[in-house]
Amino acid sequence: MIESKLAPPTLRALLAFGLFLTALFSAFAASAQQAAPSLPLLFDARERLARPDLSSLVRLRFLTSVDFPPFNFTDQNGKLSGFNVDLAREICSELEISDKCQIQAMPFADLKDALAASQGDAVIAGLAVTPELRRLFVFSRPYLMLPARFVRNLTVSLDGKTAAALSGHPVGVVKGTVHEAMLAAFFPAIKAQAFDTKDALLAALKERKVDAAFADALQLSFWVSSPASVKCCALFDGPYLSEQFLGEGMTIMLRQKDSVLTAAIDHALATLSRNGRLQEIYLRYFPYGLY
């Protein structure tokens, strides 16, 4: 595996990594007392995706960024790390081309243009699939879905263990987000209270100005297991998935002409999903679980 030299991490990336690391250690401690969280299979166990011949491939250059922990970031030693980075390495290993693989980090805003200019072969950085991008690029099958979840204040008495128990209770959501729209569409009986920011929402939940909140499961899972939550709250019901509101999930973006490479990556993802190696990477970075 060849890795390109990284630029010095930005202050934003360092701060994000510090917050992620704190939450990750807390999550490991919490998850040690419960069963390992399971990663849903996104590939049909009966489906067999052919493995294309990559013998003529000169190299495979994955492009990513460094400011999206726990998916891609630089660790305290300046090494490129994260769920996406480890997954790229496993894909190369599965395809038996580790010696031809390169992982390069660059600013997130430059990824699309770099791929179009053939400065890389595949983008693995949590780039959301949009109709505009689909006209320009192709995407692998999803390898991870990021659901929405409720989180509740533990001092609140609820009559039940499903979202129906939240009817009549004030439930916070961040204004103008897909989660606000999803909450209204999925749970019209729930009384929503909108906040301007995620921090304002979580502060209100901690102070019991709302009884629960509805937001991104990734952020909530690390928050409830971190010192910031002071053990006030816990994930509740769910997870909730919706392509309409939350998109197609985490994918790898490639150039349209690279159909053979796209098929090879799909084959590798399906294999890693079935043999448990994708689950191992998931547990490495999400010990508290998203689902």
TrEMBL record:
Keywords: Signal
Domain Solute-binding protein family 3/N-terminal: residue ranges: 59-289
SMART domains recorded: PBPb
Annotated SUPFAM superfamilies: Periplasmic binding protein-like II (SSF53850)
Domain of life: Bacteria
One Pfam short name: SBP_bac_3
Stretch forming the signal peptide: 1-29
This protein's GO CC annotations: periplasmic space
Signal in keyword set: yes
Location of this chain's protein in the cell: Periplasm
Protein name: Amino acid ABC transporter
Lineage, broadest ranks: Bacteria, Pseudomonadati, Pseudomonadota, Alphaproteobacteria, Hyphomicrobiales
